[in-house]
């Protein structure tokens, strides 16, 4: 039986929501191993002068715990 743990990560990008999600996984992978999935719980965009200047995601990252 495998055990999966879930952490919540906030990440951003000045390029896209996809890039922000990848940043969440990349940063999480620096301290955890065996990442299995990422669930995007929320997405936000910051706007200045009628232009989107950054994208942010609230992501749940799931990873398997080694036993």
TrEMBL record:
InterPro entries: Dodecin (IPR009923), Dodecin-like (IPR025543), Dodecin-like_sf (IPR036694). Pfam families: Dodecin. This is Dodecin. It comes from Psychroflexus sediminis.
């Amino acid at each position: 039986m495998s055990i999966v743990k879930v952490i919540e990560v906030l990440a951003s990008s000045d390029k896209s929501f996809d890039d922000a999600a990848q940043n969440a996984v990349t940063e999480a992978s620096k301290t955890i191993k065996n990442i299995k999935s990422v669930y995007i719980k929320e997405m936000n965009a910051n706007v200045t002068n009628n232009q989107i200047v950054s994208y942010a995601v609230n992501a749940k990252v799931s990873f398997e715990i080694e036993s």
